[in-house]
Each structure stands twice: as C-alpha cells, then as structure tokens.
C-alpha cells in the first residue's frame, strides 16, 4: 500500500513520516533535501535555479513512485509528485521566477511521467496557517530556509488549498496541524493514527 503526506514547507511532513514509519512499521520514503544539489543555489537565486530544482524533484519523486509500486510493503512517502506540478512550479512561474518556456517544458515532462504512475492509496494533507509554518521552519534551523519569505509561504498555502479542494486522484485525509503537536504529544499522534487506520480499513 502507498500512503503519502502532502503539505506546505514546515507543516510537519517529514516528522510525521518518520513517526508513522516507526509506529506502524511502514517503510519511509523521504523527500530529497539534505543531498539536493540545487536547494542552496535556489534560495540564493530563485530565478536562475528554479527549473533545475523542479526537474530534480520531479525526477526524484518519479523514481520513488516507480520503486514504491514495485514494492510489496506498505510505504509512507514524504511529499508527492503532484505538489511540484500543481503548486511549486506554477507558483514560481506566476512569481516570474520561472520562464514560460521552462514552465511549459516542465509541465510537459510531468504530464508524460504522471501517465505512467498511480496515485497514492491514501493522501494525508497537513493543513497549517502561515504562522505555524514560520514557527516550525524557524525551529529546525536550516540555513537555506532563512530567506523564505512570508508572502511566498502564503501563496503556496493558497495553491495547496485549491489543489486539495479539487483533488480527485484517490482517497484523501485532511489533518489540521495548527492546534496539535504530534511530534511531542503521543495523544495527538494517536489521534492521527486512529484517523489513518479508519481510512485504510475503508480501502478494502
């Protein structure tokens, strides 16, 4: 089974992926961040490196999905291939940080790749307001994230909400993370696990 966690930067995707993998004995697939050769450059000069970064993520996540579908294990994935195409790339294009030529090329690549893959059996969306995102981004202290602007996060949040409202690829579970702390409160994590189990059993 393929489960995936979606959400804006700082919403807690990686933390929840790690906790669920540990608690449920699922195999985690993480977003390629620490070994990403473009992230530092992208945050220094978004316009120059936006296309390179998005193609890197597209390639990385496509490979993950291919591996996941070959596996006979239950996989929990940190971020989906759809978020790059429906949220991050269009946002960069709208902000004039990616040229129309590069954006059209990127979308063409995504459409081809997505025709070969299946959507997750369950998509878990972590909904958070911008103040929650800013707080959690600051707490993890990544140097390259210090320059992320609030208006950038706000625009991403708007795109996430639009995407989730129209999501039809498969089963969806929305978790509002503004008033819970699943990283430090076992009861909050237990509540999420209970909801996920309810959705999983509904898949059969």
Tag the structure with descriptive keywords.
204 residues; alpha/beta; Rossmann fold; five-stranded parallel sheet; 5 strands
Describe the structure.
This protein is α/β, with parallel strands linked by helices. It has a single domain (2-31, 40-201), classed as P-loop containing nucleotide triphosphate hydrolases (Rossmann fold, 3-Layer(aba) Sandwich), CATH 3.40.50.300. 56% of the residues lie in helices and 12% in strands. It has eight helices and five strands; from the N terminus they run E-H-E-H-H-E-H-H-E-H-H-E-H. It has a five-stranded parallel β-sheet, with helices on both faces. Helix 4 (81-94) packs across helix 7 (150-165). It is globular and about 45 Å long. The N and C termini lie close together (11 Å).
Secondary structure: elements and pairs:
Elements: E1 2-7, H1 13-24, E2 27-29, H2 39-44, H3 46-70, E3 75-78, H4 81-94, H5 100-114, E4 122-127, H6 130-140, H7 150-165, E5 171-176, H8 186-201
Parallel strand pairs: 1-3, 1-4, 2-3, 4-5
